[in-house]
Amino acid sequence: MLAAGLISGVTAFIIYRPHLQRALRRLTMWLMETSMKPIEQNMDEHSTSILADSPSGKQNFNANIPTPQNTSPNLNQTMLISQSSASNSETDESTTSSDEEEVPSNKISLKSSVFPGDLPEEGKELLKNLENYSIFTETVTYQPKSDRNNTDQTVYCKNLFLKDRKGKFYFFICREESNVLLRQLKYKLKAHRNFSFASPIEVEENLHVLPGCITPFVFLSETVSRDIPVAIARDLILEKRLNFHPLHADFATRISFGHLLKLFGHLKRKLIIIDV
């Protein structure tokens, strides 16, 4: 008899299962509607109170949204590099890193370029070319790192001229003391396999300067290939005095990042920003 009862119960469940499911759904919906009514009532009361307090009779949904602040333009990240430093220092696959320097308060504000009288004619011609773009600079005698005093609120840069395994060249600008790991840099610049430093002959053939005089000012020459990507370390963006050789290793020309960007804009060359 027990078996017969179980069989009858199972049979009845199968027959009436659709009806039971519909009844269960209705019960669930009724419980949800009942539980939501107090919440909706509270929301209606709160909305009425907001509308009453608003001078225009409507809630200002943008009142608590902060106004976006102006930010620095996002510049594309990619490739780069060049092998000399404005300090004539030898570069290995990895150099020494340092914390980001304080943004100096002094800024170049000149109406004409300032330079020593013994600056070679080629350097003077370079400064005249910069003045054609309303870029006025200050050129001083280059001081080795060991001879600089702490009051010199300028940043000395090194310029790396590199090539990848396919023979493509890259120009990269960073702080003199920055730690540059070429293995990491190749990924950021999407270079083909590993980087190596361009040889002295390759520097002269492509940039038309000696290896110890590599500088971004070489791109003023139309003879420098436009296929060479130029990049700069992001931590130099706010610096107001960057030191580069004016085509001669015995001198340093000071220019702000803004003016460097302005120069590349006039030359219709892209300056790529990357993190190092």
Automatic annotation (TrEMBL):
Gene3D superfamilies: YbaK/aminoacyl-tRNA synthetase-associated domain. Residues 49-81 have a biased composition (Polar residues). Residues 149-262 form the YbaK/aminoacyl-tRNA synthetase-associated domain. Keywords: Hydrolase. Coiled coil: none annotated. Pfam families: tRNA_edit (PF04073). GO terms for molecular function: aminoacyl-tRNA deacylase activity. The keyword Hydrolase applies. This is PrdX deacylase domain-containing protein 1. It comes from Mytilus edulis.
